[in-house]
Structures are given as C-alpha cells and as structure tokens.
TrEMBL record:
Reaction equations catalysed: oxaloacetate + H(+) = pyruvate + CO2; 4-hydroxy-4-methyl-2-oxoglutarate = 2 pyruvate
Protein name, per record: 4-hydroxy-4-methyl-2-oxoglutarate aldolase
Gene3D superfamilies: Ribonuclease E inhibitor RraA/RraA-like (3.50.30.40)
Cited CDD domains: RraA_family (cd16841)
Protein's organism: Zobellella iuensis
Keywords recorded for this protein, A-Z: Lyase, Metal-binding
Cofactor: a divalent metal cation
Amino acid sequence: MLDLLPDLCDEHADKVRVLEPCFRDFGGEQIFWGQVVTVRCYEDNSRVRELVATPGTGKVLVVDGGAMVRRALLGDQLAAKAVENGWEGIVINGAIRDAGAIGTMVLGVKALATCPMKTEKRGLGEVDVPVTFAGVTIHPGDYLYADINGILVAREPLSHPLL
C-alpha cells in the first residue's frame, strides 16, 4: 500500500490537485489521509499547539509556515500530543525539529526541512483559512492523501479499495 497516490490519481484525475514535490517524510507513518484542518502561522506555533491538543481522528493538520525554515513549527512534544489525540498526520510548509523522535511515532509528518530552533510563543496565527503553497490552494474541510509519492488534495473524500 505504499503506492496509494498513483492509484488515486489514475482513478480520480479530475478531482485531485497534486502538491509540488518539495516535502520530505519525517513521521513514522508514510501513508496517511484525512479531512484538512488549516493553520497559517509564521515562526510561532501557538495555534499548532492548540490544535494538536484537540481530537484529530480522521483529520490532517495542514500548517502554512510561509516556507520559512528558520524556526521549527513542530517538535517531538507537539507530535506526541497529536498522536495522543488521534491526528492522522501533519503537513508543514516549513520546518520541524526532533526529527529522530518524530520518526518513531505513529503519525504521518511531511515538512520542507528540519531546524533545531524552536518558535516564539506569541499567540499568533489563523485557523481554518485557505492556504496556498506548493502550487495548490488547500481549504479547510478538503481531504488530503499522502504517501511516499507525494501529497494530493480533493474537495471530497476519494474512494479506493485500500481506504
């Protein structure tokens, strides 16, 4: 099942948008999918912290960090909180830290890079807003699918025998 996205693209080409291939896999789960919750935040992961503390079963957190990689928007403590609350995965248009620990967790994580520097906590960021990066606009409530082939989004859930 490592190659879910090629099948989804073949079966639902008219319904999917594929993100540009700029993300690396960091989580212990390489395949994940779910309904999107968005947050836009720059070098401040306060809203990420709040969201991973909420129930996340069937959801993927999409974080638009503006492709900034000077500070990590996710570390092992927040990733562990996401696992505890049932999040399926996290996609970050920015950096993470504690990559070794995150790689052992039952959580899908894709990000641009790693950076050991934590963020400042100023309570900034916007939740449930459309975000645009990697050539695609992602809306809250969209469905995101990820595997080792990349990331795609659709407006509605996609059918596939493995889902």
